[in-house]
Here is the input.
Amino acid sequence: MAEENVQGEQDIVQIFKELKEKIEKITQEKMELEKKLHDIKEHLKEVQTKEIELRDLIAEFANKESQLNAQRISIEKKLQEINNKLEKLSKVQKELKEIWG
Here is the structure.
């Protein structure tokens, strides 16, 4: 009977050793996963910050593009006005040549 008790105690000690090893392994895995999660969160923050910076830059470029388009339209309008005046002057010059010519 004493031999059975000793064997039973050894079995229990072995079970506890195995449980302890499993707990240590799970604890280590948990720590590794928590570190990965932390790293991913930090990387995500960096990406989000960069995304905001890029959005601001895009908005700035869109604003500049809008300003340049307004300038282009204004210049095209002025050029058209100048071309119209040149056409009128050309007609007047032609008429004067016909009259004086």
